Amino acid sequence: TTKTLDLDISGMTCAACVGRVERGLSKLDGVQEASVNLATERASVTYDPALIGPAALVQRVRDVGYDAPSAE
Ligand code: 9UX
């Protein structure tokens, strides 16, 4: 089973930022796909809720250097 989380992310200013967030999220166990839209400053993350949850996804965004509010 999979779930999708949409996250607001702030602090991304160039296309390389998008890559950093996508790669940072994608390599976590349980994340199947992460796609970031620079224009809307949002990420869509598809994950296995048995392996990872929203709090860890938000924390990962912060760890790679951007700001994200608590998961909606
Ligand atoms: Mo672009 Mo983003 O030079 O942290 S990678 S601003």
UniProtKB/TrEMBL annotation:
Tree of life domain: Bacteria
Signal peptide: none
Localization annotation: Cell membrane
Annotated ranges, domain HMA: 3-69
Family, similarity comment: Belongs to the cation transport ATPase (P-type) (TC 3.A.3) family. Type IB subfamily.
Name recorded for this polypeptide: P-type Cu(+) transporter
Source organism per UniProt: Deinococcus irradiatisoli
Full-length numbering of the shown residues: 2 to 73 of 835
